[in-house]
Amino acid sequence: MILSHKSLTRVSAAVAAVLAGTPTAMAAPATPAPAVVAPAPALVVAPAPALALKHLPAGQEQLTFRGELSHRTFSIYLGRGEVERAKVFQLALKNAVALLPERSTLKLSVNGRALATLPARSSEGLSITPVAIPPGVLVPGFNTVEVSVAMAHRVDCSVAATYELWTLLDPAQTGFVVPTAPWGGSRSISDIAAEALAADGTTRIALRIPDSGDAGAIERASLFIDALVQRAGLVRPIVETDEGGGRGAGFDVVIESAGTRDEATRNLRILGREDGVTLARDANTDRLVVALSGTDDADLDRQIVAFAASGAGLPPPSPAGEMIVAGEERRSFASLGLPTESFSGRRFASALDVVLPSDFYPANYDKAQVLIDGSYAASLDPGSDLVFRVNGALVSSLRLGPDRGGLLDHETVDLPLRFFHPGRNAVEIEAITSTAADRQCDTTAMANDVRFTLGKTSEIVFPSFAHLGTIPQIPGAMADGRRGDGTAVDLYLPGTGAASVGPALTVMANRAAEHRGLERIAVHLGAPAADAAPGIVVSSFNELPADLRGEVRAEMANAAEPASKVETNGAGQDDQSTAGQGVVRAAGSGDLRHWAGEAQRLLRRQGFFFGVDRDARTVPVSARSLVVTALAPRPQDAGAGGISLPRFTASSAQWLVVTAADAPTLRDGLTRLVSDGRWGDLDGQAVSLDLADGRMASIQPSRVLYVAPDHLVLSDVRPILGGLVSNHIELSLAFLMLLMTILGLSTHALIRRSGTK
Question: Containing domain of residue 740, as a range?
């Protein structure tokens, strides 16, 4: 979003006025901005300093709020000097024309303290509003920013109209206003997180690498950047290779030995040193430079290993609003960033992100539970339900009827584990809360009509689940190598030059940002051989080896193909996340597997639930698509006699292929994936991201290899066996037929022996 010179002058003057303690509102042309709610402290009037904006670590997708009630929580690092100088938080707001200003508001809180509640009335253009930050609110280190948006439709009171409501914050012009001070900067590794983020909320890292054809240099750079990401708690990193360094927000990384001194690094102003790493400021670009120097390559390797080890033992990252589950877990909604809010609209919607480990085994052996606290109005229309979805599939509901008395006191809702999968899962809570007043469309009466309240004391509980890894799965491919067996992660770069190095290091850095613990990295320049160890391949599609290219192509579908109705997760529902995008492959006929599948679908329609749908699907792909897919290390046969038998493997190794039509699309695709905040959405077997329209589609594996656990515990035996049978319907039918045969033969033998009475 670009403002005119006149608008920029008005913005700077308004922010300076807030900094000086003058109650001034700021607005874009033709859009009156609301007054600042929190008064600024009285300060001595001084000439307006130069202003810098500390952006939130979020892209446009995370800063777009939809529906009648939406809530987001962000965590942003501020250095000690920034805490002292930041007195204003700037909001750049725009909303749909359909919003009713009198009942649509945006609430801003920082570190749990409410700072402002602003009316949303910026439908004609972007309005920029400064909100004063009282002393003592900010702290050095990570600070929590909460944004809650409540919206109402201007003229339409139907449930369908709620889908037209949206409010967005422009990421390029939203954040803490930090007046620039005389020269200063990061003096410790943890302070690197205080460096300015890009306008899209990403951390831009420029690697000054003179020779991108040196596999050893790439290995060192990847491990060092990954260690920096984990030590400093950096989020959404994007790595670019530029021998001369980067420009704008972000920082540079230099790794040099005595024989590869970079002349450009000699003109640096040293800020500090820590654990063998030098922090400096480049006088030409004003960017932070993180430099590591050694006498030779062996010395550099030793220093990087020591630097990585010095950060060991740090707790794993846990983004706000995200529940990371390693085993049995119980969390309140409050701890996940969901406050108690009274709701007066027609369609309540909320969501939780649940991250499960790569060896989580989904099947029909247990269930998670949501314990709901809250209340609802007696005036709700008959048949009102609180509906629960997991990954888009409707799994459970809770009736909001008069028999409950309008109160919900830890009401239990079951979420069967078969609907979850390794990686990130979306648990959505929705309630249609329409009343008779909606049919009259009396907005005045509706403003005071509290219809539903979801309490922050509500909880989500996960049982102790079975650990049984499956192949192929993207989360498993991302986490492979973390078993502590000392093996290196193999990174293959079939492409030549720096074009593939930046995307590859971006993949590795984001992989490190989501986990703790680093492994050795073995970089292989050139296409992997047919007998090469499975690893991560980052390349344009035409540079992939023929066997991998063929397997990736089998998962692709032309985006222009007609829409198909698909069944996912055993729910017998249209997959809303991929409807109109996925294509169902026709099942073969004439074998037991085909007829078992037909029987399975028939039973589903009659209300019987089974495991994950085994129909193979494909992801839509165009010339402007990024494709991320996990591939089994060897082909899988169909089983015996048409029956799909579970197959086990002792190794969890699998291929992870990141590809696009060409090198620029590969780079742009990974940048878009990270900047949109969708890295955590990489799950299942394959994912495609279309750069033309931003649509993302994914598929779950149609058939899997099971990774035999190293240490099988007794508590895992029952759920694993039950899950294997439930996920292989044809196998369960065969077992049933076998048991019936044994029972029949036994009965026949017993009758013959005892005779007829």
Answer: 714-754
- 104 in the same domain as 226: no
Domain count, the chain: 5
- Quickly tell me which residue has 């009198």 as its tokens: 102
Based on the domain organization, do 71 and 14 belong to the same domain? Answer: yes
Is position 232 within any domain? Answer: yes
DSSP per residue over 524-590, as a string?
EESPPPTTPPP-EEEEEGGGS-HHHHHHHHHTEEETTSPP---B-TTS-SB-TTTTTT-EEPPPP-S
Residues 657 and 699 in one domain: yes
The reported pLDDT for the residue numbered 633 is 82
Residue-wise pLDDT for 106-120, tens only, equals 999 999 899 999 888
Query: How many C-beta neighbours within 10 Å does residue 382 have?
Result: 7
Residue 694 in domain: yes
**Strand order across the beta sheet in which 583-584 lies:** 556-558, 617-621, 583-584
Tokens of 443: 């907005």
Share of the chain above pLDDT 90, in %: 22
218 part of a folded domain: yes
Name the 3-class secondary structure at 215. helix
The neighbouring-strand residues paired with 128 are: 92
Pair 647, 684 in one domain = yes
Report the percent of the chain where pLDDT is more than 70.
73
Residues 494 and 581 in one domain: yes
Here the contacts of 30-33 (C-beta below 8 Å, separation 24 or greater) are: 30/124, 30/125, 31/121, 31/122, 31/124, 31/125, 31/126, 31/127, 32/121, 32/127, 33/127, 33/128, 33/129
Q: Which of 149, 179, 209 is the last residue of a domain?
A: 179
Burial 136-166 (b: 16+ CB within 10 A, else e): ebbebbebbbbbbbbbbbbeebeeebbebbb
CA 31 → CA 93, 123, 698, distances in Å?
Answer: 10, 8, 41
- Do 691 and 731 reside in the same domain of the chain? no
Q: Could you tell me how far CA 9 lies from the centroid of its own chain?
A: 37
Q: Over the chain (757 residues), what is each successive 10-residue block's mean pLDDT?
A: 43 50 38 36 38 85 89 87 90 90 89 90 87 93 90 85 90 88 65 86 89 83 91 90 81 79 66 86 86 88 85 53 83 85 86 87 87 89 88 88 81 91 89 83 70 91 87 84 62 80 93 78 88 90 89 71 31 32 32 50 46 57 91 65 66 89 92 90 90 89 78 68 65 73 84 69
Query: From its phi and psi, is residue 187 left (phi > 0), alpha (psi between -120 and 50) or beta?
Result: alpha
Q: What are phi and psi of 241, to 5 degrees?
A: -105, 125
CA atoms within 13 Å, Cβ hemisphere of 418: 23
Return the amino acid letter for 727.
N
Residues 685 and 595 in one domain: yes
List beta partners, residue 408: 374
Q: What is the pTM of this model?
A: 0.78
Element (H or E) spanning 669, and its range?
helix 663-675
Would you call 318 helix, strand, or coil by DSSP?
coil
pLDDT digits (tens, 9 = 90+) for 479-528: 764 444 557 889 999 976 667 899 999 999 998 888 767 778 889 998 88
SS3 516: coil
317 located within any domain: no
How long is the chain?
A: 757
